[in-house]
Write a structure and sequence with these properties.
159 residues
Length: 159
């Protein structure tokens, strides 16, 4: 299913199911991401889904939050070993919930599920990267217990 959600912000969210993504979910993932970011990236999401569908069971996850048969959110991440001299840890690359129904613990449920996968893989830490001025995302991850870590992101424009 693609396009706007038919779920309203006033409905209960106790019945959210978290499950692995399947190919038909990619269009809805791209639509949710576009609603949240204002940028259409369907090829990116298709590529990410294909990469995360490859064998590395227990080390990669692309999970879907589904409510009443409709995809309402997603998270993806993987275990990375010893990057930048750090211990093996779980990395969350993307977490988005349909903007029309945020603040209903769907993001928390997705985050908790991927953390369980990371724990089962034997890692003891989870990391992500956030734009320093994205207060909404920063507040969400802080509410999940994440805090500024020991690494500093650095970048250079190449144009």
């Amino acid at each position: 299913m693609s396009g706007a959600s038919s779920i309203t912000a006033t409905e209960p969210y106790r019945d959210v199911q978290i499950r692995p993504a399947v190919a038909p979910d990619v269009a809805r993932v791209a639509a949710i991401d576009e609603a949240a970011t204002g940028e259409a990236k369907p090829r990116y999401w298709q590529s990410l889904f294909e990469n995360f569908s490859q064998a590395r069971a227990g080390c990669r996850a692309f999970l879907i939050a589904e409510l009443k048969g409709e995809v309402v959110g997603f998270i993806c991440g993987e275990v990375r070993d010893f990057e930048f001299g750090a211990e093996s840890c779980g990395w969350v690359f993307a977490l988005t919930v349909d903007p029309a129904i945020r603040v209903n613990s769907i993001g928390t449920q997705l985050f908790e599920e991927i953390c369980q996968i990371f724990t089962q893989a034997g890692v003891r830490k989870v990391r992500t990267m956030i734009e320093h001025d994205n207060q909404l995302v920063m507040a969400f991850f802080r509410s999940q217990g994440l805090m500024v870590g020991r690494f500093i992101g650095m970048e250079k424009n190449l144009d």
